[in-house]
Amino acid sequence: MKKILLPLIALAISSPAAAQSIVVVTAPQADSDTLPVAFAELKAGENRAVVDKLTGDTTLDARDPSRLINLGTAYARLGRTAEAAAAFDNAIGSPIRYDVELANGDYVDSRWAARTALANLNQGKPLLALAR
What we know:
Blueprint: H1 2-14, H2 39-43, H3 47-55, H4 65-77, H5 81-93, E1 99-101, E2 107-109, H6 110-122
Antiparallel strand pairs: 1-2
Helix pairs in contact: 1-6, 3-4, 4-5, 4-6, 5-6
């Protein structure tokens, strides 16, 4: 496991995306302009509102990586690092997987984004920002 984790950490550190915070704008949706993963709240720094929105009544699957990554980001910003790590771990292990959009417009695999967020959290670095 260590042999795999070290290259991932090196990739995360060298990646331009690593300089951002991880925030997902939205999960894939068929016909909706709504952003159900609390992107607006994260962008505004309303982290408690993010936690309330993503742990309350939501249409998103509890295992949705976008939901979990944004929840983890909000927890991290609130200093709740154990809960942030758990959310990122759950996103990594989620059976749901798709590409998410970074705030800069790049697309990355949801598990890569969650792994990078967790590595950054563990190293005290900024979290990646995801758009979708």
